[in-house]
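Subject: Sanity check before I submit

Could someone independently write out the structure tokens for this chain? I want to compare against mine line by line before I put it in a report. The sequence has 128 residues.
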Amino acid sequence: MSLVTQDLSSNEVFTYHQAMKQHDREDFLDAMEKEIDDHTERGHWIIVPRSSMPTGKKSIKSIWSFKRKRLPSGELLKHKARLCAHGGMQQWGENYWETYSPVVNMLTVRLLLIICKIHKLHSKSIDF
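---
Independent answer below. Compare away.
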């Protein structure tokens, strides 16, 4: 018996061009707008015109990632868009000063689920 199952059909991830060809492209555009608003509200960036960039400095390129988030039943929950800095373009101390990437080991998740099952505890899944 497997405690952790994964429905691969719910893990559809799209690039910008792929997402714009989907029937629900408007929902992805709304998710993009929300992502940009969230970053702006948190002060993650300031918009700088390319013409005012210091000589020899480059702006950091970004990549969009899109996903349809689903409930365990498979029902569509929401559309999610993430704007990510292009991996190899940042330099420590120059254009970023901290790193944070929460990662969980799947073995740890399975262990926690087994403990919940043994002690008849309830477990919930959340997505940030």
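---
OP: Matches mine. For the report I'm noting this point. The helical segments are 16-19, 25-42, 106-118.
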